[in-house]
Amino acid sequence: MRARNCLRFYVSVAFECDNMEDAFETCHELSDIGRFDADLHQLCLRNFTRIMDVKILLHSLEFLLRFDAASTVRSLESVPIQVDPREIVKYLEPYRDEHIIYLQRMRPLQIAELDTKLAILYIEEISRLLLNEGNDNIQKIKQYRTSLRHLFFESHYMEKVKVAEKMKGSPAFAVETIILKGKDSASEECLETLLNEYREFDAAELYCFYMNAHNKRLFRILLKSYLKIVATQPEFKSRIVNMLQSMNEPGDELEIIAEFPDDWPLQTLSSFASKALSAYDYRLHCDKLRTAALSVALRHLTSELREGASTKVSIDDHTRCAVCGNLIGNEEVAVYPHSNTLAHRSCTNCSHLCPEMDTAG
């Protein structure tokens, strides 16, 4: 006990003296011989934010994760130094849950290697959980599937070939395979497959949500399908209303409203109708601005043309060409509009720049 207290005291003093290397190295040695405890672990994590050396941090990760992976990964959020996340994930391989959590946090970085690894981890975890579909597992499978589908749409650099290969041949990932194939094309065929062959309405809505900006027809296809279904399954009405509220800029709001049966209560469409009216007003305002800008530009152009057409020049026996220097004589002449400089028309074929102002004629 006395020896343990002495070591803890030594570690505390080392931290207080900013001797991070000795403090963490001592803790590492204690961990290797089974004398590292929760108090020392917390002491290390409290000082994690003071580490200014990447090597010390990475060297410490191994034994800190081994003791308590969850709290150690949380502590990584507050590390002040820049550490390549690809180095950190090497230490997270044995801890799948924490590995996934860390990769999820790294998604905004859009690193191909990390996004690909996260997708593969989702696939592996879903496959593992499907072997024992208890109540807890069903919820987790659904959570992982949803995250995987969002990742497909949101990652710009994920290695699709590797991910597709991981799902290849597994009926459990048929829907995800369709989404992955269709994400680059905003394919109507992909949407119809999700709706008609797999009856995967959540996946269809997600596909529409992300792809509608690339193909405005997708929303109409989905809506028409839902309106057919709702005739026999009234519970779909709430799904339709929720979908209308979640969609942004469907593009043809008035036509969409016209699709609804006359017996639908107006209050169910009020939110979408309000959004549609705002979008319509905005587009109308943009059209007016565009028209006004074109009108001003046209007036300026007309004014310039009139000024050019009314230009008067005086030619006498002594007038010379500004390009070749010879007398104008009886030859056809050209006038550079911004300088009223005269030149033989044949001379302007050699140069389109005014010899006096160096601007185009």
Describe this structure in words.
This is Vacuolar sorting protein 39/Transforming growth factor beta receptor-associated zinc finger domain-containing protein. One of its GO terms (biological process) is endosomal vesicle fusion. It comes from Parascaris univalens (Nematode worm). With 361 residues, the protein is an all-alpha fold. The chain has a two-stranded antiparallel sheet. α1 packs antiparallel against α2, α7 packs antiparallel against α8 and α12 packs antiparallel against α13. The C terminus is likely disordered.
Offer a few descriptive terms:
361 residues, mainly alpha
How many helices? The count is: 18
What would the principal axes of the Cα set say about the shape?
flat
Output the strand order for the largest sheet: 1-2
Give the C-alpha Rg.
35 Å
Structural class given helices, strands, pairing? mainly alpha
Q: Please give the number of β-strands.
A: 2
- Poorly predicted runs: 357-361
Return the string of H and E elements. Answer: HHHHHHHHHHHHHHHHHEEH
The span between the termini is 96 Å
Query: Mean of residue pLDDT?
Result: 83
Major β-sheet profile: 2 strands, antiparallel
Helix content bin: 55-70%
Strand content: under 5%
Domain Vacuolar sorting protein 39/Transforming growth factor beta receptor-associated zinc finger: 310-349
InterPro entries: Vam6/VPS39/TRAP1, VPS39/TGFA1_Znf
Pfam family, one: zf-Vps39_C
GO cellular component, one term: cytoplasm
